[in-house]
Amino acid sequence: MPAAPTDVFVGGVAELWQGDLDLGRRAIEVLAAEDFGAGVIVEELSYGAVAVAQRLEDLRPRALVLVGAAERGRPAGTVERRVVGGRALPHAEAQIAVGDAVTGYVSIDLVVDVASALGALPEDAVAIEVEPAATGPSEELSPEAAAGLEHALELVKAEVRGRRVPVA
Amino acid sequence: MCFKNLPIEFDGSGQARLKGGIADPYSFSVSRPEVRMTDAERESQINTLIARNGHVKDLNMDPVTRVAGALAVNVTADLDSGTYLDARSQATLFRGYEVIAMGRDPRDAIFITSRACGVCGGVHAHASAYAIEMAMGLAPPPLATVVRNMQEAAEMGYDNPLHLYLLAGPDYSELVVKAVNPELWPLAEKWHCPGEKQHGFKTMADLMSALNPLTGELYREGLEFTRLSREMFVILAGKYPHPQTVCPGGVSSTITLQTLNEYHSKLGRIFDYAQRLLAVWDDIPEFFYEADERYTKVGSRPVNLIDSGFWDDPYAYDATYANCSEWGDRRWSTPGVVIDGKLVTTRLTDINIGWEEFVEHSYYEEWAGDRYETDELGNPLSPHHQWNKRTLPKPTGRSWKDKYSWATSPRWDRHTVEAGAYARLFTTAMAQRRPPSDLIESTGTSLKMLIPKGLIAERAVEWTIPEHWNAFERNRGRAYHYVFSQLVGFENLLEAYKLFRSGERRVSAVPPSELDKHIPTDERRSVGWWGAGRGWLSHHLVMEGGKIANYQIVTPSTINASPRDPWDQPGPYEEAVMNTPIIEDVSDPSKFTSIDMLRTIRSFDPCMPCTTHVDTGHGTIVREVNTCACGAD
Fold it and tell me: Which member of A95, A105, A134 has the closest CB to residue B214?
């Protein structure tokens, strides 16, 4: 029996036990227990962005919702929704992103840039980002990131529910 | 006698011991390597040149990654004479996985270490399982070893094309060559490829166009074949790159005939592709050497290589340290150390006791005390050995004379050695110890391989120890390693079928649910010697009270990106860059791209998240330089 088409793919991007950078994995642990219904896939995407792009090519989701921490110089704990779909990097920058991914790095930006470069990023793609306060090795989230995680989870749920195709 | 610098000798039975009458055998002044040039002499030479001409420039390059910025290479270049006078490899990012592992259940290390990197997850999981099962005394049943070998052949099938086409390949593409070596393009248009029959490109220019990033035919094809190999891994292990089925004493996956058949069907497609890949990476060096002989010097360094061997004989591997040199000899790729082009040992015990890690130029403190003076067989161990090493981070400012990198300096017998997938070709070819096979033959100077029939006819190929050791031969060697690894996968698949036919289906020494009972509470030392797509990988483990008391990982990029050692010997990247001629046109210094250095560094297949894995507790180090910064310190 063919698999149900994927309406929404929710992906967490994280670095294991690197303090607040682990937020994406923690988010997915919570979201995986949610009953979003058929057509919604929740997965951790904390691995090489080339392989992530191939996963997206396999599933061809209608929408992608990424969640994780990203350092952008905002106040710690800031939660931001960024529209990341529909953008095309210049050729040279795209290859640089692929090179970074091949070198082993994992980040939301690499997932977006490499998936975009390889033609696997859905037009409808958003990233729910939390600004980290602590990025050194630690199993705990900082209080700012822990609060940001709660807010981010609500945003992700709203993104998913807003995109689900109602079952007839 | 394999040791030249360390004062170790062997008795008649082959037991190693320290030479008598030496008060401090491991001191830096007693056991000294021969050093061609000290840093003081190098600095004096540079100062003389600066006084004489104005063409000497200091450049900071970020040759691997420009987003995360984990590796910076500071070079001093004399653009007039076309030489790199000095090079410093600086790892600027760090993690804490060794420290995070401390005090945990040893099995956690499998999952923790596999997440150190986005592309090397499988190899770390395996190396960790090997270390743990040695400590636990659990020997996997034959089918478990065969399945692990198949998994890791598939992981090489993922890793090698990823590097060749997505990281190194673009440096030889039409886009880059036209931009930085425009004099080569007319030659490429006229140069007929000897490998046309295999790869289908009539001229080198056609081939270079196919290497263009994102759009080139070879680039896209390489990308697609990484997917195929990843799927082969997933068939067996359920998940990639962070498998959860690798466990001490075997694997926890369910292996059926259908599993094996699915693996087989995908492997068949790879054989035809392998013929094409080899021809591409055979033709590229020949074109460049013919175009300009100086390319034989790009990335050159002495043939000093190390590898711990890869893929075990399912009937020889018993997970003991006591027998490691015996089962190591039976590995598909033979363990070994090559110094100045000569194979000096294949014994894993020699490889282990000659291994030291120095931190004189790294952001760590020296550790005190020799916890272990010998291994369990009585062979002497250095205070700088991984079982004695402690990870004591100490971030300070950058100083070329003092500390400048988060990478450490692993050395064997105090020689600077290099790691790489290609090291396996050297050791296996030279040793002639690998078990007989219809598909792979070691001749002493080459590896002969028979690529089985896919849609096209079978083809006999031969990798020969190269006359020059340089960036081009690293890439060529990696291509042959791709073939080698896929043949290992095929031979193990056939062994799996044989075991199935004989009714042998066990894939773990004990059921995973019973592993708890086998965790020892006394003190144990062990090591997982395995391989990565980038070369050597070792996990050294000390357990006490059933918990991890020390965990030390040495990755290929730790070795290759290492800074100077206590005797001013440069690390492999540093040395290879200093030996690289500047061939690109530098008549307009503002357009200098340092492509020759970039080709050098990328030929090592750098993997930086694996390199810098130690905690300081002070947060992420952000790179200092992200582009050419002429005149910077």
Answer: A95
Angle at alpha carbon of residue B614, lines to B603 and B598, rounded to 5°:
20
Entry pTM: 0.93
Structure tokens at B438: 């219809």
DSSP characters for A28-76? HHHHTTS---TTEEEEE--S-HHHHHHHHHHH--SEEEEEEE--SSSPT
Which residues 6+ apart lie within 8 Å of B30 measured at CB? B7, B22, B24
- Picking from B118, B618, B619, the nearest residue to A101 by CB comes out as B118
**Is the confidence metric ipTM above 0.85 for this complex?**
yes
Q: Nearest by CB to B619, which of A17, A107, A135? A: A135
Q: How confident is the model at residue A6 (pLDDT cuts 50, 70, 90)?
A: confident
Does any CB of chain A come closer than 8 Å to the CB of residue B336? Answer: no
Q: Does B393 touch chain A (CB under 8 A)?
A: no
- Tell whether A99 is within 8 A of chain B (Cβ): yes
Q: Does domain B8-103+113-510+518-580+590-611 have CATH number 1.10.645.10?
A: yes
Strands B342-345 and B355-358: unpaired
Q: Which residues of B touch A24 (CB under 8 A)?
A: none
Stronger pLDDT, B70 or B85, i.e. the higher one: B85
CA of A96 vs chain B CAs: smallest distance (Å): 7
Domain positions in chain B are 8-103+113-510+518-580+590-611
Other CB atoms within 10 A of residue A26 CB: 21
Q: How many CB atoms lie within 10 A of CB B197?
A: 9
The total number of residues shown for chain A amounts to 168
